Amino acid sequence: MGSSEFSSNITFLPTRHPKRSRNRKRSKRRPIHCPIHGCYLDSVSQKHGLYADQIVQLRSRGYTHKKASLVLGDRPTVSLTGEWLEEFWCPECQSKQWYYVSKEANIYIVTPAPRSLWKTATGVIDPKGNPSVSQYTKTNASQHRLKSSRFNF
Fold it and tell me: 100 with 121: CB under 8 angstroms?
């Protein structure tokens, strides 16, 4: 039993840690691409979540009739996770557009926002305007806005 048998079983660990990326805590860019051009889309608004208030809306998302009626029986609305409306800027066509975004397993599916989804989104104003407001009121409001923006010297 010499010291040679004992010393062959010893392994030395490195004293320094391997070099790590300095920006490891910085979040990565969301892989959301333009459905027309395929380029990255830049967000220009916050996410506006969607909710369901009818059994038909939950059935179209994979719920059974029984489960959908039980969920909506407890509360008047149900928040839908992984679905929202968001406005994006496309650098190719140089324009902004609202999209319906759904996220499934870190994959973003982007489609132009249909008019029917605006009724079930939280915190958004319909870009076409309130349909219950008359054309006369809209015209007068825009004229008032123009008058108030001018300087009277």
Answer: no
Residue 112: Cβ within 10 Å count: 10
pTM over 0.90: no
Does residue 42 register a pLDDT over 60? yes
SS3 state at 74: helix
- Tokens linked to 116: 């029917």
> Position of tokens 């007068």?
140
The pLDDT score that the predictor gives to residue 75 is 85
**Whole-angstrom Cα distance, residue 63 to residue 10?**
60
- Mark residue 123 as left, alpha or beta (left: phi above 0; alpha: psi -120 to 50; beta: remaining): left
Return the residue matching tokens 């123009």.
146
Query: Which tops the pLDDT comparison, 48 or 6?
Result: 48
